[in-house]
Amino acid sequence: MVERVTGCPREVFLKIADALTRNSGRERTGAICYAVGWTHHTTGVQMIRSAAIIQALLGNIGRPGAGILALRGHCSIQGSTDVPTLYNLLPGYLPQPHALKPHSTLKDYLEHESVPTGGWHSFPKYAVSLLRAWYGDRATRENDWGYEWVPKIVGDHSQLPMTLAMLDGVIRGLVIHGQNPVVGGHNSRAVVQRGLAKLDWLVVRDFTETETASFWYDGDLVKNGELRTQDIGTEIFLLPASIAAGEKEGSFTNTHRLLQWHEKLVDAPGDNRSDLWFVYHLGKRLKKLYADSTDAKDAPIQALTWDYPEKGARADPSAEAVLKEINGYTWPERKQVSGYKELKDDGSTACGVWIYSGVYPEEGKNRARSRKPDGPDGPGTHLEWGFAWPKNIRTLYNRASADSEGRPWSQRKKLAWWNDAEGKWECPDALDFEESKRPDYKPDLSKEPTGLEALTGTEPFVMIADGKSSLFVPSGLKDGPLPAYYEAVESPVRNAFYGQQENPVAKRWNREGNRYHEVGDPRYPYVLTTYRLTEHHSGGTPTRSVAVTAELQPEGFAEIPPELARELGIAALDWVVLSTARGEIETRALVTERLRPFEIDGRRVYQIGLPWHFGNRGYATGAVANVLTSVVGDPNTSIHEGKTLTCDLRKGRLQS
Amino acid sequence: MNVHPRALDYSGPQLDGVIADESELTAGTKIRPGKRYGFFTDTTLCIGCKACEVACKEWNALPADGLNLTGMSYDNTARLSATTWRHVLFVEKISTDGARATTMPPFQSNWVMMSDVCKHCGNAPCLEACPTGAIFRTEFDTVVVQQDVCNGCGYCVAACPFGVVEVSHDDGKAHKCTLCYDRLKGGLEPACAKACPTDSIQFGELDELHARAGERVKALHEAGVENAYLYGAPGSPGATGGLERLNAFFLLTQKPEVYNLPAAPTRPARRVPRAFAAGIATVLGLALCAAGLFAGTEQ
Question: Structure pTM?
């Protein structure tokens, strides 16, 4: 069945399953590492849930060498979800207040979002400490610690619908930090570029001119005559930014939740400034601008605590001062707290990101800066190298490395074990459990215990309300409690598994300029997948603009299996045209056996590969692959489906 | 874990200066004049990231060669040159007898990758061919071109059996990998080896590298990779024709030709006596003919 549905040969699938199961058990563990391409599907969350279920069933959670690891594409993408840049989260995975949920007052919000048992029971402490950090002395018990100043969301404000909102004239201005949506945004021409062209103003901060900053005079819509420069009313500001490597201080949080500090070594040239500098000084100017306002909508800016110390001739705000606030301190004494256990919901503590608490536990001690590895004698958890959130735990849920009686599943893989003589857990890692909770602890449920007290001594998953890993997700997922197999929104084949073709709740914006292909549309017979090449970073801006990295992959291309190339008469380096209902591009052909035709349900299906990070700026150039993709997303995350769509391919060039 | 005990001495966020004998921490070896150093490049560990190419160009301030899409898999720098001293080669060996492989052999995918470099030969033909003394053998047993002495004659280019040396169009001098001569003098591991994330490129004292490489071949054989062998270690393919050994040697799984390496490279100087003898014989032969002709005229 797997072979029929996915085209993965039976023996290959069995080999993988066999390898994973052979390397799971008492003596061995297996990890699933996925490049974040797994998320670029309308079924992304379903796939990752499946991996979580498999790992839970195989005992590959909470043990050394086990787990599920998202291999992030940038040095601090983990950090940008932790702190976060996501519209629906406040720092530390606290939900953003929602106008259409019972979030009207702080009391409503806390009651609605709190969980009585498990680690999230302390949610009010984190939320109130965050408000104290933001609004300082302006936050009082009487004004709900300033809760009403926090913006409420009304729907999906993620990148895909926001881009459409620009196109529809709802959003009038945009500030972009180091992102390049003309290259990286889906449906680059009909949605992204046309959307940018409708803005009143656009600010792009980057260290070089990106396609997003230059679309108005040399973008492909201007070049092919669909847009005329003189008709674009958008006022565009390109502001020079400094780069992370050596030009600014701050922290990276990587895949394994490890915060590592990086130092500023040199001033960025000329007017180039860090994002921190820009946001800080923008905030200062806004505060000055609205200082005398009596308008209620300006109160959040007036109330904001914005007092980071400045350094040097450029008045750089201190990144360490920001980290100290992220860690949290007592209020009003501003004495650093040692970790989130000290946070209170009575306004006596302030904390910017509760999960990071402990990273700056005392004055002068930035644990993200620590670079002390364990020596050759181990233990190899390297607890003095950087700081892993939460509580410096390197392996989450490490109570699971011991059996129900607290004995390690194996000596070889031991990480946490119960020391009965001393009445505590031993762990060379930071323990992700209560240190003195006996393995045979049972809560007295008649007393309605809350928080971690409600969990038994055998329940390691402390952030889950019942302490257990679950196969069935009772709430939170928009597409169902158990993963199911769906085809992509665009697919050349019917779902051979069952009648439901695609994720029924996938986010779709089927409208002019963003049409989807029907299943098996003969005009678009091939599967197209997009990806990055190792040689290029992000949207390509940092590497396409540097000669010695640009030469490694100097030009865009499409990877085509030789069988299809023969069928269409395409030879290596020939020009080819790829097209979808959204647009068409020309690029060069790289004919390669690495792309294997799928045999799906008795049918041969060809797949074409297309690196997406090229554009017309820099040394390494190429057509923008995202001209072909559509705005369509996962129902939970709104992440685009760039890994699977359908297209047509022909030999030749575009008419010019 | 491979954490060197000395690493604990440098756990502060900032260093006062260059770490003395840094190569001891990063490559497990102290660099001392009078010892032999080289590279062991294990192609079964190469993932084709090209970090070595970039690190080499950054450290040695080498320019890009140009923006040429070659269509040859992911290899767009194509070859070693005056400005490319590390080159990662990509060869797709996906099909055998027309059938597409669906699984990867252990320790090396069907996408063969190899980081090529100057071999720093035991008997270096470039050095032997150099008429000016611009090419010399360093105190680390590596082979380096001094551009201020080089007259750009190009004899070394023809002499190199591996096509490594090139005369630059920019300055008319011969250029190639120096095995980071300047870094070795400062106690630093060469840039490419230090940047290699998988330790496919290992730097060290030659005897130790030979021992390590021998162990690796044995381990691979035991793991079922029977075609693993060394190229350029003494007594192995590549170290032929009087070259004695290649200080930069390789662990390969395919025939040398797959990696654009000669199956049996030779040292041109070995052919000198025979060529010289042939030349003398020709001169003598011609002289005899001439003598015969003159003798005929007199009569």
Answer: 0.93
